[in-house]
Every structure is written in C-alpha cells, then in structure tokens.
Amino acid sequence: DPADLDQLTHDLERELRPIGMNTVNVRQSLEFALAAFNTIFLLFQSFLALGLVVGIAGLAIITARNVVERKREIGVLRALGFRRSLVLKSQLIEVLLVVSLGVVIGLVVGIAFAAQLFASAEVTGVELTIPWDRLGFIFLITYAAVLLASIFPVLRAARIRPSEALRMME
C-alpha cells in the first residue's frame, strides 16, 4: 500500500540505521527519471517543431523571391497563351514538390536514426513503433501551412500581365 510505504521506510531506517541501512523508494526514483526523460523528449519535439516552422517560413520566402526573379519568364509564358490557372498550378506543383522531397528525406532519416538508436540500446521487450497516424497528421499540417504561406506569392505570379513582364525585358 503506497500510504504505508512512507511509514515503513521511516521505521526501517530508524531501526536499522546503526548498521548503515538507507531506504530508497524505487517507484519515486523511477517516476523522477521518467519525468526527466519525458522533459528531454519534449524539448527535442519543441526544437523539431521550431525547425519545421522555420523551414515553412523559408519556403514561403523562397517562393516570393522565385516569383520576383521569374517575372519575365512568367510574362513570356502568359504571352504565349498560358492561362493564369496554369501558372498558378505550375508554381504550386513546384512548391509541393520541394515540400514532398523534404518530408520524404526527413521521414527516412528520422526512421533510420530511430531504428539505429533502438538497435544500439539493446533493451529487451521494447520495440520500435512508428506512429503513422501522428506523422500523417503532422504532414497534413505541414502541407496546409506551406500552401497557406506560399499562396500569396503564387497568386501574385498568376496575376502578372504579359505586357508588364515583357516591358521589363528592355
């Protein structure tokens, strides 16, 4: 009974102190160690989330710069007959391709690292399980955030008038 544990610990130490006995509550020690590990893992997750946010912001900035640098090319395409929707789709496909490559590379490296970590730990009874549902949710949020962050530059690219872009060529 956990309620009697403190009293039992106190009684044992009082009776057996002359021979140097100290008592340790293993449950409290394990709970403390588990809380410390959970705090470290929460810190890792926070850093990874921060890296994801920075990556999404970086991709939005790159997309905005891409539109500015390709203004002439987009204008030429529009002058050749590309519709706004086609320019919009091509820019979005490019952004989603970059995000997909990043997600796949991150997933492969993360799973390989976790597998190596579990293989080197040699803990019996513990196996590597991958939370595919959480990963899928994180990927959906990532794709939605990237689309939200890059939609304004992509819309700006689709609105480029051929006459304005071709005038810049001179």
Structure description:
This protein is an all-alpha fold and 170 residues long. The protein has six helices and no strands. Helix 4 packs antiparallel against helix 5 (132-158). The longest helix has 44 residues, at 26-69. It is rod-shaped, with a radius of gyration of 29 Å. The chain starts with a helix and ends with a helix.
State which percent range the strand residues make up.
under 5%
Radius of gyration: 29 Å
Main sheet summary: none
Number of H- or I-type helical stretches: 6
Indicate the mean pLDDT.
85
Identify low-pLDDT runs. none
- State the order of secondary-structure elements, H for helix, E for strand: HHHHHH
Secondary structure tally: strands: 0
Structural class: mainly alpha
Oligomer: single chain
Question: Outline, from the CA principal axes?
Answer: rod-shaped
What distance lies between the first and last C-alpha atoms, to the nearest angstrom?
Answer: 87 Å
Query: What percent of the residues sit in helical stretches (DSSP H or I)?
Result: over 70%
Element layout with pairings:
Elements: H1 2-16, H2 26-69, H3 71-79, H4 84-121, H5 132-158, H6 162-167
Helix pairs in contact: 2-5, 4-5
In short:
The chain has 170 residues and is mainly α. It is built from six helices and no strands. The protein has helices at residues 2-16, 26-69, 71-79, 84-121, 132-158, 162-167.
What attributes does this structure have?
single chain, 170 residues, mainly alpha, 6 helices
